[in-house]
Design brief:
Elements: H1 22-43, E1 55-65, E2 71-75, E3 81-85, H2 90-105, E4 114-119, E5 124-127, E6 134-136, H3 142-149
Antiparallel strand pairs: 1-2, 1-4, 2-3, 4-5, 5-6
């Protein structure tokens, strides 16, 4: 005998609506608000600029590749060779490549000199006046900073290089 069976569906489970705690919702909303504010400010062209310390000295330099693969640092005014960087010199080449890439992106030539500026607060900056780009050399550690600090003009003091690691509280 075939008797029809009643079709029963499995019991329905309660929907999984794990509500987030109120503090987590507030924190997420605050984070979203901050991201939107920063995005809007950047879209509007707002740029954060910190005031530079007064310069101790400034030197205009041109960097050229020698036929043997070395990089020559030339004084832009006198044309004399200030330094010769032989071998790989990864930091020097990488720094110069970053500035050259920005010049190339804007269709500018490589002839204009770069400015090496030592501020009285111990910072050393390599600036490209044609593009406005700047690289804070102290951010790359004391050994990399020393490479560019050696290019200081005669009669000026070499920038102080802090050998101790920076610690944040």
């Amino acid at each position: 005998m075939n008797t029809p069976r009643a079709h029963t569906s499995p019991p329905m489970k309660a929907p999984m609506t794990a509500a987030l705690p109120h503090p987590v919702k507030l924190l997420g909303s605050l984070l979203l608000l901050v991201l939107l504010a920063v995005g809007w400010a950047r879209w509007q062209g707002v740029a954060v600029r910190f005031e530079d310390a007064p310069p101790l000295w400034q030197r205009e330099l041109r960097f050229v590749d020698a036929s043997n693969g070395d990089v020559l640092a030339l004084d832009a005014r006198s044309g004399e060779t200030v330094a010769r960087f032989a071998g790989e010199q990864g930091f020097v080449r990488g720094t110069l490549r970053a500035l050259a890439r920005e010049r190339g992106r804007r269709g500018l030539g490589a002839d204009a000199p770069l400015q090496l500026v030592a501020q009285n607060d111990g910072r050393l900056t390599l600036r490209d006046p044609t593009t406005g780009e700047r690289i804070g050399l102290e951010a790359f550690g004391s050994s990399n900073l020393a490479v560019f600090a050696a290019l200081h003009p005669a009669g000026t003091s070499r920038p102080r290089i802090d050998e101790s690691p920076r610690r944040t509280p």
